[in-house]
Amino acid sequence: MERIVNDFQLNIATANGTGSQSANLVLLHTMFSMGVPVSGKNLFPSNISGLPTWYILRVSDRGYQAPGDRTHIQIIMNKATWENDVESCLPGTLILFNEDAKMPIDREDCTVIGVPMTKMARGLNPKLGRMISNMIYVGLLAEILELDQGKLNDAVANQFKGKERAIELNLEAVNLGRAFINENVDTAMIPYRIEAREVDDDVFLIDGNEAVALGSHYGGVGLLGWYPITPSSGVAESLIAYIPEIRCDEDGNHLCAVIQAEDELAAVGMVIGGGWSGIRAMTATSGPGISLMSEFIGLAYFAEIPGVIWDVNRTGPSTGLPTRTQQGDLSMLYEASHGDTTHPVLIPGSMEECFEFGWKAFDIAERLQSVVFGFSDLDLGMNRWSCKGFEYPETPMDRGKILRTQAELDAIENYGRYRDVDGDGIPYRTLPGSGLDPILYRGTGHDEDGIYSEKPEVYQALMMRLKQKMDNARTWLPQPVLREEVEKEVGIIYYGSMENSIQEIDDILEDEIGRKVSQCRVRSLPLSPVVEQFIRDHETVIVLEINRDGQLYGILRRELANELIPKVHSAAYSDGMPPRARHYSELIKGVLKEVGQ
User: Is the pTM of this model over 0.90?
Assistant: First the structure.
């Protein structure tokens, strides 16, 4: 049988709370340490334990990271989803199942291997049999796929670091799985194999939440006010974990304060208080938290107080699908709160950018004297991705237009807290404790001196200045990443975690309809002028998004020149899953057919 090397997908069906995540991460790290391009997606329920969970491993020498069109190897451990898991297998699938579940599998068109995983695991430890059974399937796959045993040993040791008995027990389970395949299965009839590739020692796996936390530390975060919510809690938890290691002075005193608030409204109130006092302050939340924070966000916009909020998007509306992924919060972030508001939104598409925007968000917030949003999602935030390393900030922090001495204040003629003295839309500010006046910040109507005013002309001038400083930022916020084709007939605009599907989408279009398309990855709002020029340069432009309503498409339609609007088309799709290349390539084909291209 012809071997299929480093080009297949595994799906592991288990129950939440059974220890399967440890087993799955062992597989991921073993393959990764062999130099094999691999990505893992954890699809878990919104409860503590008991409900179904799946883990998708995509192995691809071409570097594809999103779930593919089909599953090639299916592991079935969970009675609750047994029938659906079996039925979902396409002909030719290799099915490995726990026969101790005593559930039927009638698929003559698949290769089916039953293994008494629970019985084997209980032979090692009766009390922990249910959890150890997961390591049995690790051993089964290790033998079938020819995984390097030394790399696997290292992965187990790292996963259970410091727990010698757990390491020993789990390796025994792995060896039982290997022995079962060796004694009972002719692996020559199974085509799938893993082959080691050149290992880059500088590349490592990390999730987006941890990368944001590290970046925030290097940005000088001094206050974290937060309230737990999936999938953003990992940002706060990672930030807290690194404080003793990288954010202490010579005497061991922590340089970052952490306060777990009673709710999201209190958390963002702390951020605004910190920003007003001159501390670099942040919080991390998800869509429901942003909804609760909206009134305070409007205060920060109108009073011009810096702060950073990371939104790790989950699937809404309401409670929605709290452990699935989406880009459904974009419009809400851009125009959060009531009245006329626009906020800077930083949109990373890689681990490197999660780190970079983690520190850069503070510079932007203080430069603009505004709340800055970091916009991630569950897929980017909670799954582990390959990272080539971080570029650390070398220049001094950009603290913006802060006056620190009386001489600096005296040098500004007719200084007022909200007076724009140099035409960039951004006033100077003083900080509490400096002894300089004025430091007041006002969330009601105010004139350039910060004095309460309801005069129509004063309000209108203030709002236009706030708009001006955001419009000016379009040219220096993180700029789009372009990859343009010579023909420039079709262009694609996308953002965020769609980056991890775009290469496969591009390859599908080229293979199936002979199309090479230009790409523009948006990395911030307000939109750069580069985006408008990209649209001008192409006949047809399609906006790819992981939401239902085409939110970036809607923003483009509001902000583009009228003659450009007919060029732009939406290809939005959302089902809670990470973006799959096949779905979007079909949407693109549909748009091209509709416009006659």
Answer: yes
